[in-house]
Specification:
The chain is α/β, with parallel strands linked by helices and 572 residues long.
Length: 572
């Protein structure tokens, strides 16, 4: 049994490093915890300072905090014990909870890209839309804010019994100081403009785009679409859930990857199983869905080619990186007027539910000036925050520099199902060039403008959906399989690809694909050539997956000719 003092901290007799200052990191939920760790990077490498953590218990969406703390090795003490202990400094990246009861100078920082949200303590005003002004809940002060004020900048969140709670209020930009002066002038003297550590980390990570793309499984020539969904009914998942499926359905499977970065509050509000279960068809179609508590979303912003977002901070960070974007949803009523998010919402086009998505992405808008709206101290945030923290600790700063570090490359995803998705394949023959584009079959809904009039279906020979297996014109054989047996079991199939470089047609004709060409798209190219009545033997150009390569089809010596077969329709 571990020995603890009555305040929840271990007796100093049991400590290894004799730190002289203790900092309390205040967690509201997993979202605030991730940003808190960004801020607490200012103490890296200093054995004079130890950091312990607590959770206020004031969030309805604080699930996963214990798991987050365990995964990151945080020393977590109960809130009640934290309130009974004196600390040298406390740091919070949220305004929730009775922060005024903490016995320490308190530094309050935002947990997103600035202060963009309207949020009230008053249940009667609505948790996300405080149109009635400052609420009557704890901390509300008359004349110190209005319903138009931002969460974290109004008196409702900064004052208690007429006194300013934080000893320092961290702002990332001068424009926030103007809003603070307007909505809570009493707190303006406590403001410190210290930039945005997350924006600085994204800048430091930008040179590693190639490494992040490789870690995420993005092949050369592919594009990555980042879908950012905040939490609540106005988010992408809440208001436009079909946007994820539509991206997978309409964007060519071999030319695009789609990654959905879903807000931790959505994960923990519904449960991870539920989020994954709702998105399971999309996962089968190739969706990348990183876990909520990591930093994969930062790597994804650096790796992405475009984004489809909403009013969450990730949309702002993506725009600040210069990514062209569209908005699938936007909760205007929850966004603080005059904030960077309101500015973003006025400039990005909305997703059209009818027009082809690929064409809309071609017209997506890049807003490089967004970076200047997130931070007015680019590259300097950690240095400024360190100066602020050490001033409150009455310690000289360490002599080594404090600079933003690149985010770690994501860990490779664990292996998924061994059966790839069934695909609708659109082919086009121009001279001796064959263009092949593939789209996940399960993600389609009815007639789709992005599919040609004469598509065929390619599926794994072990495809579990018998309907798709029966529709398949091409079946991809498993290792060790006999193509003749695959054809015999599937009378609607015209061609078996594999094992290896073999392409076996119904009727006995056989071709080989020497080189490193994937036999599945090569099989689609072969069907297209036969469908045009062309002799498929010889050298061709294959346009596939955003790349152009040489395709060589060699007629195998064995097998009987089948002159009557001209394409997949002949096998029906």
């Amino acid at each position: 049994m571990r020995v603890r003092t009555e305040r929840g901290l271990p007796d100093r007799r049991w400590l290894t490093v004799p730190a002289t200052r203790t900092v309390l990191g205040v967690i509201h939920n997993v979202t605030s915890a991730t940003r808190l760790l960004d801020v607490l990077a200012v103490f890296e490498g200093d054995p004079r300072v130890r950091v312990v953590f607590t959770c206020t218990g004031s969030s309805e969406l604080d699930g996963g905090v214990a798991e987050f703390a365990a995964a990151h090795g945080l020393f977590l003490i109960p809130w009640e014990r934290a309130l009974a202990q004196e600390f040298d400094l406390a740091v919070s990246t949220s305004r929730g909870g009775d922060l005024e009861e903490i016995s320490a100078p308190l530094i309050g920082a935002p947990h997103g890209a600035g202060y963009n949200k309207r949020l009230s303590r008053n249940p009667e005003s609505g948790i996300r839309n405080p149109e009635s002004g400052a609420g009557a809940g704890a901390g509300a002060e008359s004349g110190a804010g209005s319903g138009a004020g931002a969460f974290g900048l109004s008196g409702e969140w900064l004052l208690h019994d007429g006194e300013v709670v934080p000893s320092a209020i961290v702002l990332s930009h001068e424009e926030q100081h103007a809003r603070l002066l307007r909505d809570c002038p009493e707190a303006a003297p406590y403001a410190h403009i210290a930039g945005d550590p997350c924006a600085d980390q994204l800048d430091a990570s930008a040179p590693f785009r190639t490494e992040y793309r490789a870690a995420l499984g993005i092949r050369p020539g592919q594009k990555l679409l980042l879908i950012t969904s905040t939490w609540g009914p106005d988010s992408v998942l809440g208001a436009a859930p079909d946007a994820v499926r539509r991206a997978l359905a309409e964007l060519p499977y071999d030319e695009y990857r789609v990654l959905a970065a879903v807000h931790p509050n959505a994960w923990y509000g519904h449960g991870g199983w539920q989020i994954r279960n709702w998105l399971k068809p999309c996962l089968r179609a190739g969706l990348i869905l990183p876990p909520p508590a990591g930093e994969t979303w930062k790597a994804a912003i650096c790796a992405a080619d475009a984004f489809l977002g909403d009013h969450g901070s990730l949309s702002l960070y993506a725009a600040a990186r210069g990514l062209p974007g569209l908005l699938a949803s936007f909760g205007a009523d929850t966004v603080a007027p005059g904030s960077p998010m309101a500015w973003l919402g006025e400039r990005l086009p909305r997703l059209d539910p009818v027009r082809p998505l690929a064409a809309q992405l071609d017209g997506a808008v890049a807003l490089p000036s967004a970076a200047a709206r997130i931070t007015s101290r680019p590259g300097r945030s950690l240095a400024l925050l360190r100066t602020l923290c050490y001033r409150h600790l009455a310690l000289p700063e360490p002599q080594f520099p404090c600079v933003p570090r690149p985010v770690a490359a994501p860990q490779p995803a664990p292996p998924g199902t061994p059966v790839g998705p069934a695909l609708y394949v659109d082919t086009r023959v121009t001279g001796r060039e064959v263009a092949v584009r593939r789209y996940p079959a399960e993600a389609q809904r009815g007639t789709a403008a992005h599919l040609g009039a004469d598509v065929h279906v390619v599926a794994d020979a072990a495809e579990p959906d018998p309907r798709l297996r029966a529709l398949a014109d091409v079946l991809v054989a498993r290792p060790g399989a006999d193509p003749a047996e695959v054809l015999a079991r599937n009378p609607g199939c015209a061609l078996v690809a594999g094992p290896g470089p073999r392409l076996v047609l119904r009727g006995g004709r056989e071709f080989e694909v020497p080189g490193a060409v994937d036999p599945a798209p090569a099989a689609s190219a072969l069907l297209a050539l036969l469908g045009e009545g062309l002799d498929p033997e010889g050298e061709f150009t294959l346009r596939f997956g955003g790349a152009v390569s040489a395709l060589r089809l060699l007629r195998a010596p064995a097998g009987e000719a089948d002159p009557g077969f001209l394409g997949p329709d002949a096998a029906q």
